[in-house]
Amino acid sequence: MLPLKYIRQNAELVRQGMAHKGIETERLDQILSLDEELRAKIAHTETLKAQRNRVTQTIAQLKREGGEAQDKITSMAELSREIKEIDQGIQILQEQLHTHLLWVPNIPHSTVPVGSDASANRLVSTEGELVTHSFAVQDHLELLTALQLVDFEAGGRIAGRGFPLYTGKGARLERALINFMLDLHTQERNYTEIFPPFVATRQTTELTGQLPKLEEDMYVTTVDDLFLIPTAEVPLTGIYQGQVLSEGDLPLRYAAYSACFRREAGSYGKETRGLLRVHQFNKVELVKYVHPDASYDELETLRVDAEEVLKRLGLTYRILELCTGDLSFAAAKCYDLEVYAPAGEQWLEVSSCSNYEAFQARRGNIKFRRKDTGKLDYVHTLNGSGLATPRLLAAILETYQQADGTVVVPEALVPYYGEETLKPA
RNA sequence: GGAGGAGUGGCUGAGCGGUUGAAAGCGGCGGUCUUGAAAACCGUUGACCGGUUACCCCGGUCCGGGGGUUCGAAUCCCUCCUCCUCCGCCA
Prior knowledge:
Layout: H1 4-9, H2 11-20, H3 26-64, H4 70-102, E1 122-127, H5 140-146, E2 150-151, H6 152-159, E3 165-166, H7 169-188, E4 192-194, E5 199-201, H8 202-207, E6 220-221, E7 226-228, H9 233-238, E8 244-246, E9 252-261, E10 280-290, H10 295-312, E11 317-321, E12 333-341, E13 346-355, H11 359-364, E14 367-369, E15 376-378, E16 380-388, H12 389-400, E17 407-408, H13 414-417, E18 421-422
Parallel strand pairs: 4-9, 8-14
Antiparallel strand pairs: 1-11, 2-3, 5-7, 6-7, 9-10, 10-16, 11-12, 12-13, 13-16, 14-15, 17-18
Helix pairs in contact: 3-4, 5-12
The chain binds one RNA strand of 91 nucleotides through residues 5, 39, 42-43, 45-47, 49-50, 52-53, 55-57, 59-61, 63-64, 69-70, 72-77, 79-80, 243-244, 246, 369, 371, 373-376.
């Protein structure tokens, strides 16, 4: 959420930012006119309230001195009715404005390349060699099946398509990946481990920016209006909503595993093979609360921390800086990490590392007290996947497959998985 | 699920219809003292909105959320939420 005052004073900047993100700016004009109307009403009611307060003081004094105040009391009743009426109008305007404001995206950082779609993303670098095999390769789905790691049909019987059931060694490998990543971030980097709730209230889900825009992509429990989290970013960023942190606490860095639930409405038929797009998956998420001056440095280290997972696993990947049109609603700047999957010679997105600046902090009212001025200011929040498992597993299988149909377990995972090779049944 | 108690500023905690935006303490900030620090002492210290834009001033709002009573509500009433205690249920 952008502050109303900021929008008012920087309307053209906001308009341009929205346009660069490919979002209609009609709403901006509505906001500006509602804002004007609102301020006029506020000025009016405040004048009346000032009058009421003055007279109320007089009445109090008269009463104390034992005087007669009935005529003043009678005239005040009329004034109070008028104030109430104007205030009701103000409330309606404020609700309308709030609704519109929830739909105004964050403005891209000035360094973000301008473009309308993924083709304008900037390739930062490619790490590792493009793996080639001297034999006929299997894709990850064939390998999953041959190695009996995932039973898609059973998952389908239980919950429907897109809910994979990991079995036996597959379940163990999945757990190994999660533990490996959590240990890396919490023991070798400065992240505090969190095990969060997997559901969140509407308010929490709004603060991270998933709502209202992505409501149709969320699973919701209708009786309680709780949302199944699409990422641990939601609970992690919700931890400090409404709180005031002290400057000395910053930066706060958290890492959490969670299952992630996404309806992926409308995306059937596209990349839906195997594990590439599913409704429930596992992910380790990194979230930081930082001082505004440090947020862009923290974005770089966040990305490096996410990259480390891929490096340790010996996978080939590339780093993209997203262009304005590909940037998510709440992000000011974002890097994507894409891992190389040799079977289809595809790059698979396994992480997005974003700086939201104060966008989420404003929605969630997360502040800190500045040491120098003693004043309150919004923190900056960042998050990045570190990482999501399904595509990571796909890349591992395709990269480490052997001519005999076995798959070598990456060295870093062996202590977690317990064996050095995955063999077909 | 049933019964009772409580939610006040960054924190603890008074106030229970009108000089209370809110005592006191802690914390924070500034200063005195000190080679420096601590301690002590003195001073200072809420947030948000609007006008104005120089955060200087003026006005307004805010005592868990929402609604009501009243000329006037932190204070009375209703409702919701959260926490605590007891009972029940489940693990």
